[in-house]
What we know:
homodimer, Rossmann fold
Amino acid sequence: xxxxxxxxxxxxxxxxxxxxxxxxxxxxxxxxxxxxxxxxxxxxxxxxxxxxxxxxxxxxxxxxxxxxxxxxxxxxxxxxxxxxxxxxxxxxxxxxxxxxxxxxxxxxxxxxxxxxxxxxxxxxxxxxxxxxxxxxxxxxxxxxxxxxxxxxxxxxxxxxxxxxxxxxxxxxxxxxxxxxxxxxxxxxxxxxxxxxxxxxxxxx
Amino acid sequence: xxxxxxxxxxxxxxxxxxxxxxxxxxxxxxxxxxxxxxxxxxxxxxxxxxxxxxxxxxxxxxxxxxxxxxxxxxxxxxxxxxxxxxxxxxxxxxxxxxxxxxxxxxxxxxxxxxxxxxxxxxxxxxxxxxxxxxxxxxxxxxxxxxxxxxxxxxxxxxxxxxxxxxxxxxxxxxxxxxxxxxxxxxxxxxxxxxxxxxxxxxxx
Lengths: 204, 204
């Protein structure tokens, strides 16, 4: 594939969505593939933009067609990344950024080992709780997400890169560096971008 | 080692020295170790800053003491990177950037496989020649360096990262991204920077 596939994971409230949106604004070659889900649409969310919202039967129909790069049942709702959109964009040379959880990362790594994975850590557990409260989540919801976070954080070692989000813009810039650096990997270098034939003949 | 060791190589006139100086200004954690050489000091060069200028006997004495991470005889002059300075700074957590040629890169990679290597390519061979002329080098000198460049460019594949210097500041920013991204590698992550004990206990 010409482009790179990036996965961004973090506990709920860790900042993955905000950072990803900033990166998508700044990097024209970076694209997002909208996740399919069966969870209820929150106010301010737009169908087809934040998620593609599907009925359970529709989602399970797509599972049976092997249409997902990864999918999961989280807190009773399905979430899935459509395969076709990802591979089409990578083939065109775009980089793709996926915001998914640890289980999704593992599934994708098996199908597509070249994936580049980034885990965003909060500076502290209390900070994580505060951010969820600021987002207006119920205490019950917070407790549920915190339990998930505690199960996910130990998997940080399986990720390629770790970024602590104690400052949103600094954390964003670090992940931006990761994306830019990965584009400079010699293993990804496309010799056809060299216009000078003299130079090119030395490189093949 | 706590810090990362970077090698920057490019054909003469490729921009490695200018870019490295810009990076050293911008990144406070990045240090350079001054190369030892027996070549004649050029006007504007300062002993101990641009190079440590030594007599041939002095240099060969250091070789016999195994004091170099790498050294080479290029166009009749010795160039070498002192081992002690590099390892002391890496141990303190600084990143080190070394401007050396392909042969030096190979030597260091054998001694220190964790080294991260960047090759800067010119946009064209003519561009390379022009830059050497602008630098005031004689046609004979240019031809000699061009022959070396033609021998070195085929080794680009052995480097971790490739950056084309068709725009100095953009090339510098790409290498800056590489340096920043490598600091985010989970394999380099120092859990002791986490202050929150609750979070830390989930990470070990």
